[in-house]
Specification:
Distance between the termini: 100 Å
Mean pLDDT: 82
Number of strands: 8
CATH class of the largest domain: Mainly Beta
Largest sheet: 5 strands, antiparallel
Low-confidence stretches: 40-50
CATH architecture of the largest domain: Sandwich
Radius of gyration: 29 Å
Helix content: 25-40%
Strand content: 25-35%
Order of helices and strands: HEEEEEEEEH
């Protein structure tokens, strides 16, 4: 092998390694630049696939082990709560007993609807368990709507106070259009028991 041949092989190896290294660096740079766009697209996809159109949530303090129940009635439908956890419109997705051992350590119930039926909706809260004397349980209720190709919009929010067993209070009565718009002037807190109504319908 002549000195020229040895020099030529070394140069070729060096160039080959440099090309491979530059290609690898370029690939890594492309991946880093694309990551924010991929994450954004993933979040948008998950947002559009989130379940439910009318969403009713109920929260009470995590350190209170009392059992509070959420009841919801859609237009021309039976009430949905822990006795009747679903119908053709609503489903109760989480029935929280408010006791130790809850995997999430959060006192929380939620109901979702499939579609938006126009008409009057009623949202009630019910104290199922015995309440220790002097204890007042603040219960927060949030109503949101998700229309087609839209993000979730909060419509209503309130906090009710429960202090005795079997106390049932109406958080909201309201009307929605088929597009998920709140009918002006339709919101009230006029008491409308749902548990009594469910028992009678059975």
């Amino acid at each position: 092998m002549t000195p020229y041949d040895e020099f030529d092989d070394t140069t070729t190896d060096t160039v080959f390694r440099d090309v491979i290294l530059l290609a690898l660096i370029g690939f890594i740079a492309m991946v880093i630049m694309l990551l924010p766009h991929l994450q954004k697209k993933k979040e948008e996809t998950q947002d559009h696939k989130a379940p439910g159109n009318v969403i009713v949530e109920m929260h009470w303090p995590n350190d209170m082990i009392v059992d509070v129940d959420l009841w919801v009635r859609a237009p021309n439908a039976t009430p949905v709560g822990f006795w009747n956890q679903g119908n053709d419109i609503f489903n109760l997705l989480r029935d929280d007993l408010g006791i130790d051992g809850d995997a999430t350590n959060e006192n929380y119930e939620i109901s979702y609807s499939r579609g938006i039926r126009p008409g009057e909706y009623i949202v009630n809260v019910h104290m199922y368990s015995i309440v220790p004397k002097g204890l007042v349980v603040p219960v927060k209720i949030v109503v949101s709507v998700r229309a087609k190709y839209d993000t979730t919009r909060q419509l209503l929010e309130t906090t009710l106070k429960l202090n005795r067993r079997n106390q049932e209070e109406t958080a909201f009565k309201f009307r929605l259009t088929a597009e998920g718009e709140l009918v002006e002037g339709s919101v009230s807190t006029l008491r409308h028991p749902l548990i009594t109504g469910y028992r009678r319908s059975k």
